[in-house]
Specification:
The chain is of the alpha/beta class. It has 11 helices and 8 strands. Strand 3, helix 3 and strand 4 form a beta-alpha-beta unit. Helix 5 crosses helix 7, helix 7 runs parallel beside helix 8 and helix 10 packs parallel to helix 11. The chain is globular. The two termini are 14 Å apart. The mean pLDDT is 96.
Length: 246
């Protein structure tokens, strides 16, 4: 059975004082679901030293293990700092840094080589959605961003419609179900029934306490990748608790 996962992406937010939020998450993180927080790279080491029930991850990595890449961080460095997972292919990275599906796949392989779980993000823009291209876009991203050696242990897929990230807009449960059912079918077709059914599928995009239970009731939603609502334990804990109860 797939263990459910509540992942928080702090993005470019958080100083050392923010680590007190991990302490406030401990009770919620003691339930059935795995709780992962991906703070800025500057906080990974200190966060991992007192994470308790919370797993610590990173927000991105370079595709190379080392080299002349000023300002970049390799997956090995993140692992050494205390990370156990890394978010890859987030729409903000794809848009701001021009990351292609192929480059996301290279990064995924680098994450695996370092012993990190790769959380690979896919998602359509508002124009894609309005022109009926959602499943084509998702299918293309899955095909190009996921290497051939994906397993339920080394890979998580997060569906984040770009138009719902940080906007307060949330797809209907029917729309979420359509994409998650499509992703599950696509993964099973490519990797086989056992592996395809073992890979966890997260939903991300304006997830909050008030809609979490409804989203988690959707088939093949194994958890959430949460942005702004993960910054404060008072906002994130109810989401985790909803997942524990689902």
């Amino acid at each position: 059975m797939r263990r459910k996962l509540a992942a928080g992406n702090w993005k470019m937010n958080g100083l050392a004082s923010a680590l007190s939020e991990l302490d406030a998450l401990q009770d919620a993180a003691s339930g059935a679901a795995e709780v992962l927080i991906c703070p800025p790279a500057t906080l990974i080491s200190s966060a991992s030293s007192h994470a308790g029930n919370v797993t610590i991850g990173a927000q991105d990595c370079h595709s190379a293990p080392s080299g002349a890449h000023t300002g970049e961080l390799s997956a090995e460095m993140l692992k050494d700092a205390g990370a156990s997972a890394v978010i890859l292919g987030h729409s903000e990275r794809r848009a701001d840094h021009g990351e292609s599906d192929a480059y996301v796949a290279y990064k995924t392989q680098a994450a695996w080589a370092a012993g990190l779980t790769a959380i690979v993000c896919v998602g359509e823009t508002l124009n894609d959605r309005e022109t009926g291209q959602t499943l084509d876009v998702i299918g293309s991203q899955l095909s190009g961003s996921l290497p051939d050696d994906c397993t339920g242990e080394n890979t998580v897929v997060a569906y984040e419609p770009v138009w719902a990230i940080g906007t307060g807009k949330v797809p209907t449960t029917e729309q979420i179900a359509e994409v998650h059912t499509f992703m599950r079918s696509t993964l099973m077709s490519r990797f086989g029934d056992d592996t395809g059914s073992a890979i966890r599928l997260l939903y991300g995009g304006s997830v909050k306490a008030s809609n979490a239970a409804e989203i988690f009731a959707v088939s093949d939603v194994d958890g959430a990748l949460v942005g702004g609502a993960s910054l404060k334990a008072v906002d994130f804990a109810p989401i985790v608790e909803a997942l524990n109860a689902s």
